[in-house]
């Protein structure tokens, strides 16, 4: 028996919150999907403190949804907005960018979930995490797409080992490429190599729209979008135009990266995109010669930050020479049987178990 979204929303509207109102009237439900009897959603609390206070509500919400006739499984993620009253970064003055809305954020046809992988600071390994996570999810049986939306520095063609220009037999639909079990597309595949991209807002929006709407993605369980670093036009137009399931934020443990990660979290909070979790990359370095472990960028900073902000912490990924070499050679480490692949497999298992992939 299939269940309707309306029934689920009605059940959630019956779950009261401390301080009055309910989960629906206080607008805390995000990314609700109902597939047959399987229900998934995110509760996005107004602040980390509120998220902590919502422990009993989480259990009540799960019970209420489970009690709806026809519901076979419930997967819910609790997350929170970033720190509330921080000043906006200058690039977030939304009014400065003319981005006319046409009917609000849209779904991408055939795609169940869209997860953006973001970072505040450049070079923290967002593209490495995106490609390895995509491959790890595909190895665990998910139908995965990977969209390289890093218009200023597309690195997925190199990391996934593809260079062929995608075909477009009718001049409208672009055929994506396949690599390591993943359906992929990158703006880098549409440009000449070494072509500098100096685009302004409207052109970026046009390119992004094409990559999402004109690419024949087919049926996907999850589309991973590798964003450029920071808080700019791409993030803004993506959140305004596309229904995102949520965002994963990658950071290294050091303070300076965390500082920028907070800006990214703040941006997603303003754009009403739920943050599904934080990932610590380059956690520990294990010398391939002597096995000695060094914490080059520190260790544990992202986990502590996630706990502070009431956000899920999704895991630590080691700094390893083999990860860099594999990425440079076009076969992500997650596509191999190297021991370093396990950290990405674990991350993928966690996302699947949490209903996020
Ligand atoms: N865990 C890791 N171990 C070893 N090298 C890594 C790891 N993560 C990333 N790297 C390397 O660090 C460099 C930067 O990584 P990557 O391009 O993934 O970062 P990014 O955050 O996407 O950067 P950009 O700012 O260009 O978007 C790459 O050479 C990559 O191979």
Could you please describe the fold and organization of this structure?
GO terms for molecular function: ATP binding. Binds and transfers iron-sulfur (Fe-S) clusters to target apoproteins. Can hydrolyze ATP. Homodimer. InterPro entries: FSCA_dom_sf, MIP18-like, Mrp/NBP35_ATP-bd, NUBPL-like, P-loop_NTPase, YlxH/NBP35. Helix 4 (126-139) packs across helix 11 (341-353) and helix 6 crosses helix 7. The protein has helices at residues 5-13, 48-53, 55-66, 126-139, 156-160, 201-213, 233-241, 255-270, 301-309, 321-329, 341-353; strands spanning 29-35, 38-45, 73-80, 111-118, 144-148, 177-179, 182-186, 220-226, 246-251, 275-286, 293-294, 313-319. The chain is α/β, with parallel strands linked by helices and 357 residues long. Mean pLDDT is 86; it is low at 83-101. The longest helix is centred in the C-terminal third of the chain and has 16 residues, at 255-270. The protein is built from 11 helices and 12 strands. Bound molecules: adenosine-5'-triphosphate. Residues 119, 122-128, 150, 153, 155, 228-229, 281-282, 317, 319-320, 323-324, 327 line the site of adenosine-5'-triphosphate (ATP).
């Amino acid at each position: 028996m299939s269940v309707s979204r309306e029934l689920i929303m009605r059940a959630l509207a019956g779950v009261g919150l401390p301080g009055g109102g309910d989960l629906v009237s206080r607008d805390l439900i995000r990314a609700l999907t109902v597939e047959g009897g399987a229900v998934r959603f995110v509760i996005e609390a107004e602040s980390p403190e509120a998220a902590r206070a919502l422990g009993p509500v989480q259990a009540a919400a799960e019970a209420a949804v489970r009690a709806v006739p026809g519901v076979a499984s419930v997967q819910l993620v609790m997350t929170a907005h970033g720190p509330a009253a921080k000043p906006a970064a200058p690039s977030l003055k939304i009014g400065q960018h003319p981005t006319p809305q046409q009917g609000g954020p849209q779904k991408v046809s055939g795609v169940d979930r869209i997860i953006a992988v973001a970072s505040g600071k450049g070079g923290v390994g967002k593209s490495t995490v995106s490609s390895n996570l995509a491959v790890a999810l595909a190895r665990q049986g998910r139908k995965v797409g990977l969209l390289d939306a890093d218009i200023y520095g597309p690195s997925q063609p190199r990391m996934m080992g593809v260079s062929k220009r995608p075909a477009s037999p009718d001049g409208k639909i672009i055929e994506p490429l396949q690599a390591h079990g993943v359906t992929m597309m990158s703006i880098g595949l549409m440009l000449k190599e070494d072509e500098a991209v100096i685009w302004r807002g409207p052109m970026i929006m046009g390119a992004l729209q094409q990559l999402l709407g004109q690419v024949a993605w087919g049926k996907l369980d999850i589309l991973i979008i590798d964003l450029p670093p920071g808080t700019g036009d791409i993030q803004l137009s993506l959140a305004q135009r596309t229904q995102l399931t949520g965002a994963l934020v990658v950071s290294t443990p050091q303070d300076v990266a965390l500082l920028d990660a907070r800006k990214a979290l703040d941006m997603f909070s303003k754009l009403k995109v739920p943050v599904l979790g934080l990932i610590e990359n380059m956690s520990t370095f294990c010398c391939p010669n002597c096995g000695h472990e060094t914490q080059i960028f520190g260790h544990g900073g992202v986990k502590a930050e996630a706990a502070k902000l009431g956000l899920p912490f999704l895991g630590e990924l080691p700094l390893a020479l083999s990860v860099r070499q594999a990425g440079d050679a076009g076969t992500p480490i997650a596509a191999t049987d190297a021991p370093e692949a396990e950290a990405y497999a674990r991350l993928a298992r966690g996302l699947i178990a949490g209903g996020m992939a």
